[in-house]
Design goal:
single chain, 218 residues, alpha/beta, Rossmann fold, 8 helices, 43% helix, 20% strand, globular, binds calcium ion
Length: 218
């Protein structure tokens, strides 16, 4: 499981056994990624199940993801989208996303997924300029200092009533510690504060995984 706030190994196993219905490809993706040095960048199976159900609840057909890593979140949502569903994944790593492609193919969802390599802000600007929208659901899980830039662009790319989920918004609890002023913590703390006061959206900060800020565009 990824970076998370709390929970014993025993509780984590219980949640995975009872709270998720993973496919073989999802299990392989999660277990192989767990062996990698950067395994904490992967979302947990429970969060994947939550995102998949959320996609179904809002009737999502178009999903945009900023920060794909080895593909678990995109795979979970792609499996939940209708047959005509479309996923756009932005990431900077050829190495990690080549692993992702393998699992997407194994799950039979590769035709739904359009992976684009390069800086996320630039690609989102290009998408806005090309009017490549609207999306129903956007997941932001990339470099934290750029989160605000991704958030602003996601609002432009999202339909009214659409949802943005921002990952790691509690940053292992560091956001609540005023003495912690590292770059990532400061960026996340500032964005939580901004969203809390943002009249353009409805929002809820859920303590799933490492904290998921859910934002609905008004
Ligand atoms: Ca994350």
């Amino acid at each position: 499981m990824g970076r998370m706030l709390r929970g014993s190994d025993q509780l984590e196993a219980y949640v995975d056994a009872n709270g998720t219905r993973e496919t073989a490809a999802q299990i392989r993706c999660r277990e192989e990624t767990a062996q990698m040095p950067m395994a904490m960048m992967q979302i947990g199976a429970d969060q994947g199940a939550f995102m998949a159900l959320t996609a179904k609840l809002i009737g999502a057909a178009r999903y945009l993801e900023i920060g794909t890593f080895t593909g678990y979140s995109a795979l979970s949502v792609a499996l939940a989208l209708p047959a005509n569903g479309k996923v756009v994944c932005l990431d900077v790593s050829e190495e990690f996303t080549s692993r992702a492609r393998k699992y997407w193919k194994e799950a039979g969802v590769e035709s739904k997924i359009d992976l684009r390599l390069g800086p996320g802000v630039d690609e989102m600007d290009r998408m806005i300029a090309a009017k490549e929208y609207p999306f129903d659901f956007v997941f932001i899980d990339a470099d934290k200092p750029n989160y605000d830039a991704y958030y602003e662009r996601a609002l432009k790319l999202l339909r009214q009533g659409g949802l943005i989920a921002l990952d790691n918004m509690l940053w292992s609890g560091a956001v609540a510690d005023p003495s912690n002023n590292d770059t990532n913590t400061v960026a996340i703390r500032a964005l939580n504060k901004k969203i809390h006061a943002d009249e353009r959206v409805d929002a809820a900060l859920a303590t799933i995984g490492d904290g998921v800020m859910l934002v609905r565009k008004r």
